[in-house]
Amino acid sequence: MAIMPIDWPTGLDIRQMAISICLVLPVALVLVTMLALVARSRYLANDCTPMVSGKSPLSILYQQYRFVVNGPALIKDGYARFSNGLFEIPRTFRFGQVVLCKPELIEELKNTRSAVASPEPWIDQLLQISHVMPGYFPKGKGWPAIAKTTPGLIRGTAHKQLDRYIPHMNKAISSQLGALKFTDTECAVGCFDFAYSIVARSGSFAMVGPRLSQNEEYIQAVKDHILGMIVTTRVQFLVPDGLKRYFGGFIGRLATLGTRWDMHASRKTLLKHFDARAAEYRNEMASGDLVEDLKTNPEQKEDPVSPVLFTIVVRFSCNAYGRVFVQVEIFRWLYENSIVNQKWSYSEVIGEMLLLQFAFIYTTAYALYGALSELAQRPEYTDPLREEAEAFLANREPTVASCDQMILMDSFLKECQRLHPPAAISAHRVCVTELQLSNGITLKPGTHVGVPSGVIQYSSSAYTDPETFDGFRFAKRAAAGASNTKLVDLSPEYLVFGMGVHACPGRWMASALMKLVLGHLLLQYDVLPSSKQGAGRRESLYGSLSFEEFCVPNFGLEIRLRQREGMRSSE
């Protein structure tokens, strides 16, 4: 029987096949990814919730793309269509984001128990804790117990003991300003980096004490680690959960390649300093030179956030002059409870410190960044704010009372946050069980729910002439007898700090810190726009892209500080 000859491909045919495969495979991969995105979004979506552009496959892909690159604009469009109800935004490989627009629905979410809709899973997913911070918290036990305790701790220290922190925060601000380099009485600074550096230094005092808050290596590592976490977690949002364990770390490192925001390198630096500080704590505990006054947290009985009963440790050092107050550091409190009371492991303490740095420093820096930019662009506010700073801050030690008396500055800061929130959605919750709403819609477990605070704060139903900046808007409201006019106050039309029992517990410290910074600047400098900015032209506060609901600052935006005649930077 004759054997049929095999017609092997020639060299030219092989090259053509290779080229075809190289062209077809990427296209096939893109198509498969698109189909997976649509199928996953449809599977996770709630049946009765409308989407901004509909639920067709192309509409879902388009909304996913818009949400990634310009989420605030998509949310604004959704609010315009569904202001008397709700809508859902599909997200990549994850549950969709349901946005509640109707005031009655927002109030329902505020009053919903954490057993039904909780912010904890949202924070866990936002920070990608199991992927970005592996090994710090116990696996499979839900939101870490140490993180459940921290909000109550902050209320008991950073809020109730705020008068003891303010003088030291004030010194940290003076130290940061003293490092500025002036040429012919002027200094140009990057607006965000300037705000970020001040908050990192002064906020670190409350967390780790005076020595580390003055350590340049530590402060730089704090800043780099936070921005590294932000970039890494945002990029990992785009990776399916099943692939993150294999590719998540590589993609995260790739995202920060060529920047200073190497999360892993900066974390090593932070761990070195944390370990050294913990050794100092152990030595002080062993020497017995500290006397403790234990005071029960007065808010604890009514605090649903922190079910664990704890005490505030007020420390005194005994010396020749008697008992002198020694600052309570959040790191110290967490560490001693892990060692003395064996509540948590040391790795959990470190993990919680990294989360607290992210939560307080970046958000406060963003708020201060917006205020500095507005102050530079609006010289008509300089004189009244300066007069207030001279009345309550000049030639005296700052206190909580003096900060509270600066009504105009409080109003100015609140108006800046109203118009420039760090995100277009706040009051985030994740449905732990089914959430039944009064409009008949039931949201399935795992659904993300939030409030479009960025749009509401521009709403004409809540504010007169909402698009116009009025720095004394809330001072006028207070004079007219309105309620909820302070920066730290919560209300349905002002949701920067969240709402209900889960609202930001550090907002009092953030408010005092920003007032101190603006007070220092107004007393010593004129705050001016960049000399690069043309006449009549205003640079945007936001970068060229956002990421989902989060606004990205314009890192290139500069302001100028001009020394006032006869004034020098504080030493």
From TrEMBL:
Keyword Membrane attached: yes
Compartments where located: Membrane
Segments crossing the lipid bilayer: 17-39
CDD domains membership: CYP503A1-like
Acyltransferase listed as a keyword: no
Keywords assigned: Heme, Iron, Membrane, Metal-binding, Monooxygenase, Oxidoreductase, Transmembrane, Transmembrane helix
GO MF annotations, alphabetized: heme binding; iron ion binding; monooxygenase activity; oxidoreductase activity, acting on paired donors, with incorporation or reduction of molecular oxygen
Residues the record lists as binding heme: 504
Annotated coiled-coil segments of the chain: none
InterPro entries: Cyt_P450 (IPR001128), Cyt_P450_CS (IPR017972), Cyt_P450_E_grp-IV (IPR002403), Cyt_P450_sf (IPR036396)
Primary location recorded for the protein, binned into one broad class: membrane
A Pfam cross-reference name: p450
Gene Ontology BP terms: mycotoxin biosynthetic process
GO cellular component, one term: membrane
SUPFAM superfamilies: Cytochrome P450 (SSF48264)
Known cofactor(s): heme
Domain of life per record: Eukaryota
Family: Belongs to the cytochrome P450 family.
Protein name as annotated: Cytochrome P450
Naturally occurring in which organism (per UniProt): Penicillium brasilianum
